[in-house]
Amino acid sequence: MVKKQQAPEIKVAADNAALNLMAVEEFCRCAKAAIAAHNRFCVALSGGNTPRAVYSLLATKKDALPWDKIYIFFGDERHVPPEHSDSNYRMANESLLSRVPLPMKNIYRVHAELDAKVAAQEYEDQLREFYQLQDIRLQNNDWPQFDLILLGLGDDGHTASLFPGSLALTENTRIVVANWVKKFNEYRITLTFPVLNQAAQVMFLVSGESKAQILKDVLNLDSANPYPAQRVQPVNGRLLWLLDQPAARLL
Ligand code: 6PG
Prior knowledge:
six-stranded parallel sheet, 9 strands
């Protein structure tokens, strides 16, 4: 039984362009608040198509943020090299990372050119070192806390690379796993729910008519068979859904 979830915060923009602007404004607000609070902003970027325009618009605001205090991670990555057209890193690098004065050392790329399980373990080790976490095998449930995690919504209700029916959905001790995705017959490397739910803020970006039905289903908090995206319930953080009108059509 899914525990009764608190109603998420939903903001609807008139169209995709307005959504991109709203997302950039929220990103900058989050970044400035985090830097004011603890002198750095740690953000996990989402992949897929929706965020590309957000990242491109953000790159035009490059003078608005102290990029040397911003640390870039990825919520998930496809099991491909960084130059592959499917690479989330490549998309983010082309649209944002290569266009702002970010020190290379501040960008934590998933080395998805490696064996998927090796890449996942290496990314987990990097996160453990960055956040100075103890060894999870001590069961101390020390989780990395991102200031912001950007997420998208797939038309099957997946988010990051947490797909319906995949093993990663029940992972509760690892920070990063290699998740076999049957529908694609490939591995993905993904942050796990405990990490997503430790974030200070999670921001879903959902755009377009094609997402209207799945969005309605996912935001139906009473559904007995929860979609993966419904299991993003920040323990203490803010959950914000940024939508455009076409995606929000059925709400
Ligand atoms: C990925 C993303 C994935 C994405 C959704 C929505 O690696 O593709 O992490 O979760 O956010 O599939 O993708 P679109 O934005 O392309 O609709």
